[in-house]
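anyone else get weird line breaks when pasting these?? whatever heres mine. first is seq + tokens for prot A
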Amino acid sequence: MIRKFLIERRSWIILFLCLQLLSLSMAYLDPDIPLGPLLYVTFISTIIFVIFLAIRYSRETRFYRSLEEWDPHLDLTELSPGSSPFEQIVQTHLYDQTERLRQEAALNRSMLEAEKDELLSWIHDVKTPLTAMQLMIERLDDHAAQEQLTYEWLRIHLLLDRQLHQKRIPFMENDLFIEQVELKSLLSQEIRTLRPWCMRRGIGFDVDLEIREVLCDAKWLAFIVRQLLTNAVKYSENADIVITSYLHSERPVLEVRDNGRGIDPKDLPRIFDKGFTSTLVHNDPKATGMGLYLARRAAQPLHIRIKASSQPGEGTSMKLIFPTKNEFVQIRGM
């Protein structure tokens, strides 16, 4: 800040030095002007000027120092009040601009909330005819048509479910209920939902649960498991998906392992990024790049770590590593 102040006031400093040199030059050239007393006056005036600069530095940089240290947000209470007319002009414009930005942010937030509520309402409204459609499909006598329509119905159902949870994720901390979740019933429900899709692709499930219960939120855990299972089914065919649970380093682990096409090693660090699909099969129409991204986002507030391992052509293993009971103390306090 001292360097910036000296640069800002360099015109004053140069003017003062020029005046002192001018006085000494006149005394040097004119023998009638005594040089000794003039040197003394120059020395005293230089000391006074340095003291003046120090005082002005303390007063003039107080406002700008607080401005430099200010964290750019819409709260201006941390700024020092402007003392000089120029500082007050800057302060007035900052306050006016901040107030305008605050109003725009509040308006945008309100519009986003309204849009989110409208979308959630629309999703809930769509579920009613979707349920009626499912009942109508179940009454069909044509088995081939029933299977095809059930498959398409399931795709719509999963897309709506993903969209619903995607809108809820930013506020999921307000919707958590931590309890002992029975893995068998949760997995059975999710597998039952995916049954038409699995039958179409010749996929079965091999479930072996050593750990039968985990401490978690049932609804959000079901959503995370649903994303892992749909990914496993999507990239597998005529093979079993193995689901196991066990204890590792005192932490419960739920593993979903498929025998699909696998993931290229260079893609593994990016599979949880939003919108990332694959560099190996870049034009895959089945891939959206959202399932694993949403699963990780939902897992973070639950303190669940998702670990992926895979080899191309050998399948993929997705592990949900649950926290210990002690780590849930802060979640229960929400």
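and prot B, same format (seq, then tokens)
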Amino acid sequence: MTTRYDDQDDRPSLLGRPSMLMPPPAPGPWQRVVDGVRGLFDHMGQVSLMAVHAVRAGFRRPFEGRAIMHQLESLGVASLGIVVVTSVFIGMVMAVQFAYGLRKFGGMEYTGRVIALSFARELAPSLTAVIVGGRIGSGMAAEVGAMAVTEQIDAIRALGADPIKKLVWPRLAASVVVMPMLGALAFVLGFAGAMVITDYEFNIPAGFFLRSALGSVRIQDFISGMFKTPFFGAIIALVGCHFGLITRGGTAGVGNSTTRSVVVISIAILIADFVLTKLTIIMWPN
């Protein structure tokens, strides 16, 4: 009697289907672009909804006055050092650059006017927002992200409280209030640094520098610059809190959210600066 061995088996074999062992194909360049654009609009929608929710929650009791005051100290007072150093040295650098450039054309007496206008309209609000925003936004993302990965936000929901009202609203209100103050301080300190360096380096009297600057800068120029700062503060708080709330993956996720928040805040401020500058030109054309 002969035993028969079949060469083929009816049962499926993993070796016979190598596609089951291979990873899925990587997305093409166009698919990555589409996914990136889709993710961008997804994040923008989430931030917009969170902003509306936070503003509505801010008008409901309790008003979180103690938390707002704590955030004012944490975001404003703790940022004075970096504002003082950066604004003074930016003013000095800009004064040296403009003075050297204008001296070639015999126009050094216009240095004070150019410095004052550039600081009032652009440098004080925008650079302050970018520099301070990196510090404030990363702190918000790290703090809220640490709460997210340790399930403290879930505990807030379990207790019947609103995480947006408890976490986002105090930071949003404090950032909107703090940024105009820091922008005005940066304008004064930057102009003072430029005045000192031109008097010492280029023999432009400080009194003449101040008089020429005050004669060319109008209240509309100062208002057009400070008009941007509350919007910059809102961007910083919303983006930082957004990336903190969506943090996943433990300590590595907190670091990733912090890095992403700094990058997104800087880009968003620059884009918003262009839009707000066009708006201020329309509102105050002369």
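btw re prot B: The two ends are 109 Å apart (CA to CA). Confidence is low (pLDDT under 50) at residues 1-8, 12-16.
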